[in-house]
Amino acid sequence: MELEKILPKDGPSVEEVKKYLDKYNNEFIVIKCGGSVLIDPNLFNIFIQDVAVLKKLGLSPIIVHGGGKRINNKLSELNIKSNFIKGLRVTDNKIISIVEDVLIEFNKEIVNALKDLSCEAKRITSKEYNIISVKPESEDLGFVGIPNKIKTNVLNEIIKENQVPVVAPLGINEKKQTFNINADTAAGAIAKELNARRLLIISDVEGVLDKNKKLITEINSKKAKEMINNGIISGGMIPKINNCLDVASNGVKGVVIIDGRKSHSILFELFSDKGAGTLIRE
Question: Hey, which bits of the chain come out as E strands?
Answer without folding.
Answer: 28-33, 60-65, 84-85, 88-89, 121-124, 132-136, 145-150, 164-167, 170-172, 178-180, 198-203, 208-209, 215-216, 218-220, 254-259, 277-281
